[in-house]
Amino acid sequence: MSDQVTHFIGGVQVAEGATFATHDPVTGGVVRLVHEADRAVVDKAVAAARAAQPGWAALPVAERAGWMRRLADAIEARFEELVAAEIADTGKSITQTRTLDIPRGAANFRSFAEIAAQRPDEAFHLKDVLSYTVRRPLGVVAVIVPWNLPFLLATWKIGPALVAGNAIVVKPSEHTPGSMAVLADIAAEIGLPPGVLNVVHGLGGDSTGQFLVEHPGVDAVTFTGESRTGSTIMKGVADRVKPVSFELGGKNAGLVFADADLDVAVEGSVRSVFTNGGQVCLCTERLYVERPVFEEFVTRLAKRAGELRFGRPEDEDTTMMPMISAEHRDKVLSYYRLAESEGAEFRAGGGVPSFGDERDGGYYVEPTVLTGLPSDSRVNREEIFGPVCHVAPFDTEAEAVALANDSEYGLAATVWTSRLSRAHRVAQSLEAGLVWVNTWYLRDLRTPFGGVKLSGIGREGGTDSLDFYSEPTTITIKLEPEHE
Ligand code: NAD
Ligand code: 6OD
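That is the input. Now the predicted structure with 6OD docked in place:
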């Protein structure tokens, strides 16, 4: 892939629009120049998708599923190139990128191929009346994704949208265009019908993202990103009543009961707080720990936070990555300072690491563990999206559930307990789309994924994705002629 990122429209590269630079989060240096799609480029992409969509939808689902498997095969064949592109844009560790981000891209295409190809139609028989449902694709879908898991999150939407018979226009984050540029190249290489998958690059509001979602030729929007952006997009598409699927922000709670295996709870919380530098919508930012084990838990979590390794991305034992941008680093640091002014105790971190090399120009912050804030503090209510959590004690199960649910968000929660009945009871009381018990971010791609409250609208995953990316028509037939 060249260092100039171009759009992919109708099966060809299009180098139109002014360019902007992306920056390496590890050093702050320039990574690539990216063409920004203006309205004219977005028009072209939508027109290419509209032209391709009927032919694509007319293929039997088994053929579209075959294309998804070919995409997965090609991702595996160009695995290291994708790993390199993702690392260059994000500064992720090579270990995470090789084990999570890129393999999930291939898995997303493969699993939606299987789910779609094997899905039966629904039919209902009532005396002499037969009702059955056929599903049609929505048409042209805009796919707007963020920077934190760029390849994983884009393919999570692209796979089901395509296999359901839609043509799509994808807009990756302005910070992370690299892996989608490789995917576009892969689509051309395997001969995916031109116009079925288009990629336009650019910014969000008042730029490519907004032009795309509000385009009259776009039938639906699938978006992952901040809750505030979701709300803006919703207003922008309201007049045309476009279907939207939104995976938005989180302020996820973790509940640690005194009966939990504390080794498992501590290590699991290290993962759930600090993975990807805390830049995963599912990351835990609020931990509530039953009072008898509170002090031990905090001490151990803080110690482990201090042991995370700020290696270079290519070092296999690196466990802490930079923030995506200078702006995001400053946002996270502003919450560290806010925590100070709100009266928090810093049990780990709170600052910026110093390397004595070019990484001092990068966007690193220290993994941070806070205690001592009330649940109505801003640090406990607002999504920070960095390597930081606040830990508070609780005394009863009911109090723990109430604290966890005291949030405008409702994406994910974790429960650490060895009591089976408690695990079920608490999990079912939490106002969240996803609850993990004694684990975190363990995924079965057939299950519904999404959040409640400010965390989203709708569910994707398995048949929920196929349902969003299609519309049912119910056909009812009277089996006996009415006048015989
Ligand atoms: P963001 O909302 O700033 O941007 C996401 C995407 O939307 C980018 O491609 C951006 O260019 C585009 N965009 C911005 N404004 C737009 C507009 N007005 N119209 C159309 N497109 C627009 O989010 P981000 O900073 O890239 O990502 C971090 C956020 O994403 C966090 O809040 C995180 O919780 C959330 N997130 C949620 C999930 C989930 O599954 N629920 C997954 C990942 C990230
Ligand atoms: O694993 C997934 O399918 C998914 N949608 C993860 C979202 C992570 C948020 O940052």
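The mean pLDDT is 97.
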